[in-house]
Design goal:
Layout: H1 2-22, H2 29-42, E1 45-48, H3 53-60, E2 71-73, H4 84-88, E3 96-98, E4 104-106, H5 112-119
Parallel strand pairs: 1-2
Antiparallel strand pairs: 1-3, 3-4
Length: 123
């Protein structure tokens, strides 16, 4: 019985540590707004669609400052098509961040710190 209690305690502690380590750091609304505006000023583009779950989560990471993001909508409202601008840019997954130097970060939600470093925007 003692082995099971020790195992359960070890498992619980390990799970808690993994959860805390994987949680994205919290940023203040001022930091979120500053980053969103800097990304736009630097010429970074966020290619996104209205139907993409990762896109919604990426925007949510910016909180209310998401309205300042340099977002390019890649689908018509209510459709799952790809608009010409996104096709011409070679976008094949969402969300895709494109930086002025031509580098890209695509698919999945990206940490704001990573975006800040890539665009050389202070956080």
């Amino acid at each position: 019985m003692r082995k099971y209690v020790i195992f359960a305690a070890f498992f619980s502690l390990t799970a808690a540590l993994f959860y805390m380590a994987s949680e994205e750091p919290k940023f203040t609304p001022a930091q979120q707004e500053s980053l969103a505006k800097c990304l736009k000023d630097k010429g970074v583009k966020l290619y996104s669609t209205w139907w993409c779950g990762y896109c919604k989560k990426q925007e949510a990471a910016f909180g209310a400052a998401a309205k300042y993001l340099p977002k390019v909508e890649c689908s018509s409202p209510g459709k799952h098509d790809q608009l010409a601008e996104c096709e011409a840019a070679g976008i094949d997954g969402y969300p895709t961040w494109v930086f002025p130097d031509g580098s890209r970060i695509d698919r999945y939600v990206r940490d704001l710190r990573l975006l800040s470093e890539q665009a050389k925007c202070p956080l």
